Amino acid sequence: MAAQASITKLHSPLKELVAAASADITSAFGRTEKDQAEVAEWVANVAAGTTAKPESLKDLDAQLVPRTYAVSNYLTAADVALFGALHPVLSQLQPAQYYSHPALTRYFDHVQSRAPIRKAADSLSPAFPLITFDLENTPKLERKADPPKKKEKKEKAPTPDTTASPAAPKEKKEKKEASAAEPSEGKTQKKEKKEKAPAKEGAKKDAGGKKGAAAAEPEGSGEPVPSMIDLRVGKILDIKVHPDADGLYIEQIDFGEESGPRTVVSGLVKYIPIEQMQNKYLVGVCNLKPANMRGVKSFAMVLCATHKDGKDAGIELVQPPTDAKIGDRIYFEGSEFENATPLAQLNPKKKIFETVQPGFTTLDTKEAAWVNPATKSVHRIRTAQGVCIAPTFVGASLS
């Protein structure tokens, strides 16, 4: 295999690192022919010494922006080789320097904690010690695209008034305005026409069904209902303790998306041992607004059941049916909810999740459900295969 052959061209101790870690990685050299070719290319580039040069970091950072791993959505020998090549470079960078390469820093910090890499690196100590990054104080990225848009609006604003000179007499201005209208129409009628025009345009768009946003607005602004929440089956691919927060886990969770796994931060360290989280199937809340958790952005929330006597009595993961698949849609029983489409993203100002959440509970059967506080009707939370459950809790709160 090309990738395995290219390892022999690596210099020590990087060669030993890649060989040792690859032995503990499933599909270390790729699952498909395409992935195998990409792994071989990455390893060959590392061996050639062109990948981890300081002057190459900017391009490498751009490559890693949409990626969790170098190849596809799983750990390979390419990540081990890239980690080893980058280690001596990143270990010398000051915060201001690695802040300027956020995707690269995020990638390196993630892969250096993966068990196969950490095990191999520790065996070769002190060649590849763990590097600690000050991610909590990472400066916020500036959105450079906004200022031009504001300027364009300011420049376009005066356009309607350019037909009249600021110094023109009031009589001439009124004549010009009147000439654009019917002889019987005055200035007030002209304004009314302008106000009515957008309404007609909007009506045409609605009638044609071309503007989906127009239909979504009433749904988001209406009474909060559970079907607005996007729940999906996910699987934890990787998990580690947050380097800057002892009570937080950082997970890579696969929700069956083409973009790859999502980074999710959960405050479960004190309640669920890490070995019980690894490779676990779970229920994820996938349309919350992404939030920074001690320097790491979280793109979903893990749905958990809290014992009716409080957190100190225990927290456990809500589990989908045993035959559920990654990415399966999770919905609420009831004709008004089953076929509803969740919002693309919950608006934090609307407090939709916070309004609906008090009705989340587990029944006497340990099945997860939402109980309507007004009608007391019960709507179990389920996939097409079956109902989601909390393993041991009855009357638990779900959040």
Give a description of the structure:
By secondary structure, this protein is an alpha+beta fold. The chain folds into 2 domains: about 1-125, Glutathione S-transferase Yfyf (Class Pi), Chain A, domain 2 (Up-down Bundle), CATH 1.20.1050; about 225-399, Beta Barrel (OB fold (Dihydrolipoamide Acetyltransferase, E2P)). The chain has 14 helices and 14 strands. The protein has helices at about 1-5, 15-20, 35-50, 55-65, 75-90, 95-100, 100-110, 115-125, 145-155, 170-180, 185-210, 210-220, 275, 350-355; strands at about 230-240, 250-255, 260-265, 280-285, 290-295, 295-300, 300, 305, 315, 330, 360, 370, 380, 395-399. Strands 1, 2, 3, 4, 7, 10, 11, 12 and 13 form a 9-stranded antiparallel beta sheet that branches. It has a 3-stranded antiparallel beta sheet with strand order 9-8-14, with no helix packed on it. Strands 5-6 form a two-stranded antiparallel sheet. A hairpin with a 2-residue loop joins strand 5 and strand 6. Helix 2 runs antiparallel to helix 5 and helix 4 (about 55-65) packs across helix 7 (about 100-110). Residues about 160-220 have low confidence and may be disordered. It comes from Cerrena zonata. Pfam families: Arc1p_N_like (PF21972), tRNA_bind (PF01588). This is Nucleic acid-binding protein.
